[in-house]
Design brief:
Elements (H helix, E strand, L loop, with lengths): L1 H7 L2 H24 L2 H18 L8 H20 L20 H18 L4 H12 L4 H8 L3 H22 L7 H6 L1
Helix pairs in contact: 2-3, 2-4, 3-4, 4-7, 5-8, 6-8, 7-8
Length: about 190
């Protein structure tokens, strides 16, 4: 399992593997707060600077929750500093799109992702955060629980109700047509 490999790695290797694994999810996560890709990258750079300073004292089993907690705190500091509305850009979730996708598939995927981002922004704040950590950042329930400082059961509740609300809103936006759960999660 990749997580076990990271936990047993030497500090330099651990840092590089952590950077490879979490840089993009952290950028997408920070971007949800900042609305600006370059500012999100700056926040994530700060997170990794802080990680490099604390790598030897950090509990490596709680690495992902620590990263996302620090990222959220930096992003919230940024948000308070700039006091502006957060608008997510289409570019963010498309960072990892397959090079094999046709232009038509890429356009459909980008439109779906943009529509979902707008719907996610209509959820209550805790549901937004849980859904973003699960489906955008790719964290598991235990990592989300630690990052959000809540129980695993509450994480499940937040994600379940967030996805259910998104499904209802999506169906309403699509004129009542059913949208498979897989499409909502995949986007």
């Amino acid at each position: 399992m990749r997580g076990e490999h990271v936990l047993m790695a030497a500090p330099d290797t651990l840092f590089l593997e952590t950077l490879q694994r979490y840089e993009r999810p952290l950028i997408r996560y920070a971007h949800g707060y900042t609305g600006d890709l370059e500012e999100a990258r700056d926040i994530v750079q700060d997170v990794f600077v802080k990680l490099s300073q604390r790598l030897h004292t950090l509990d490596h089993e709680r690495l992902a929750p620590w990263l996302f907690t620090v990222c959220r705190n930096r992003a919230l500091d940024h948000q308070r500093k700039h006091r502006r509305l957060v608008v997510m850009e289409t570019e963010t979730l498309d960072l990892e799109m397959s090079a094999d996708a046709s232009p038509e598939e890429e356009l459909d995927r980008a439109e779906t992702a943009a529509a979902l981002r707008k719907l996610i922004e209509t959820l209550p704040a805790r549901q937004q955060e849980a859904v973003r950590l699960k489906f955008i950042a790719g964290l598991d329930y235990q990592q989300i629980s630690a990052a959000m400082k809540t129980s695993i059961g509450n994480v499940g509740y937040l994600i379940h109700h967030g996805v259910a609300a998104l499904r209802v809103k999506w169906q309403a936006a699509e004129g009542g047509q059913g949208v498979p759960h897989e499409r909502l999660v995949a986007a």
